[in-house]
Amino acid sequence: MATESRACRAILLREGDDVAVASAPIPAGARVEVGGATVAALEPIGLGHKIAVRDVAEGAAARKYGQVIGFASRPIPAGALVHVHNLRADLFERDYAFATERPTVPEPGAPRTFRGYLRPDGRVGTRNYIAVVSTVNCSASTSRFISERFRGRDFRRSHPNVDGVFAITHKGGCGLAFEGKDHQILERVLAGFVNHPNVAAYILVGLGCEGAQAQHLISTRRLRSRSRGEPNAAPPHVFTIQEEGGIGRTVEAAVAAVERLLPAADAWRRTEQPASKLCLALECGGSDGNSGVTANPALGAAADLLIAQGGSAVLGETTEIYGAEHLLTRRAVSEAVGRKLIDRIRWWEWYTQVLGAEINNNPSPGNKLGGLSTIYEKSLGALAKAGSTPLVDVVDYAEQVRRPGLTFMDTPGYDPVCTTGLVASGANVLVFTTGRGSVLGLKPTPCVKVATNTTMYRWMRDDMDLDAGTILDGEPVADVGRRLFDMVLDVAGGEPTRSEGAGLGEEEFVPWTIGPVL
């Protein structure tokens, strides 16, 4: 009977909600316990999917999290599956109530620390890499050839404090308007990575005739060498294939330069640092119906703990807070900060309309299989990652996070593009929640994967770092959040993540491209 009772339980997230979320598959005909009452399932309800707890009239709003997730496209009787066949994402007005519900930051408790690399600018690295940066796709293979020369031999035996040499490659750098929006974004992203606290030193590799010239990047972004053994004002090393005499000569010259950088990079040492030096990137991908029930609220709790210590957290994916943005504007520290967020929402409405797309053309097929029905439902669950502290700032894509607390960054929802921007902002740890099983990693920042359900966690255990599905079995969200926060500190101090162990993190570098390719 205990097993049957567990199998027929659904989670009512807020009193007054019209739907509950299945914590395990529910067979047709089962009597389901929902918030102290019972409802008979009229049809099978999958894990993470929604069961109606009361009748919802055609055209009426359906609520989850105490918020509108859509409107009934047909009458929905109590006990029915609520999904894309009977729920649609009609437009509706949101009350932004700017800065009217600004919460307080929780008390920090005992000071927490981690062992990191204190850089001259005051930021702290959680890793210690050398980067080989391609300014254009035409030099991408050459950049990879350079980095691969440091994989076939065990250079870490003589340089144990260097986490690796990795290549930053991409598909852009030419065919763009010179000094236009895409050129500015690419330069901002590349500067964010070479100046990242997890990068000890770097070199730039170009072709020679591209639009995104290395020297332009250096001058506009005021780049300087980050090698510890060189003067602070030294310009970065630049290798241009056409000037070096081809790929082979470029590779040899660049490899020699990296070898000269290794001793200085290896001279860095980890020291005890306060948790306030952490900037946590918050991301979800391959979401399911339990993302907003387990992993995302747990990540929100961990973010609250970090912010209470004086740290920073940065949330992105403007297209995936759509329909829930009013919950952030109310938490904004000022009306000006809240309006910056709405300005970005309005831009996205314009941008998608101009290109013949719909901002609410979401969730993805995988999201729907996992139980998500509308963009509003997906956004409300995604926003749980943001915890409960005030929104202190709204920044452009790849702009550096400069304030402690919760910052929102304007990014697309596509995971590689979003995380590229978040890492470029200076985030030195990334936490990625997933219900379907996303496997992203992004050097130079370690990526912690959090599974929303135990079934997927066990199936993909080699790729997942933490199981938040225990919340469905009764473990409090706050407890999982504390375990996740402890894991973040361990990872920041050098504990490898599953994605690092798998060697992920270079192919996922994808700067945002907004305009046409010329």
The count of β-strands is 23
Termini Cα gap: 66 Å
Q: Structural class given helices, strands, pairing?
A: alpha/beta
Helix content: 25-40%
Low-confidence stretches: 1-7
Beta-strand content: 15-25%
Mean pLDDT: 94
The biggest beta sheet reads:
7 strands, parallel
| Major beta sheet, strand line-up | 19-20-18-17-21-22-23
If helices are DSSP runs of H or I spanning 4 or more residues, what is the number of helices? 15
Rounded to an integer in angstroms, the radius of gyration calculated over CA atoms is 24 Å
Assign an overall shape. Answer: globular
Short account of what is shown:
The chain has 518 residues and is of the alpha/beta class. The protein has helices spanning 2-7, 140-148, 181-194, 214-221, 241-244, 247-266, 295-308, 325-329, 335-354, 365-369, 375-383, 415-424, 454-459, 477-492, 498-501, and strands at residues 10-11, 19-22, 31-34, 37-40, 50-52, 61-64, 67-72, 81-82, 87-88, 113-118, 124-125, 129-134, 164-168, 199-206, 237-240, 271-274, 279-284, 312-315, 391-395, 405-409, 429-434, 447-451, 466-467. A hairpin with a 2-residue loop joins strand 3 and strand 4.
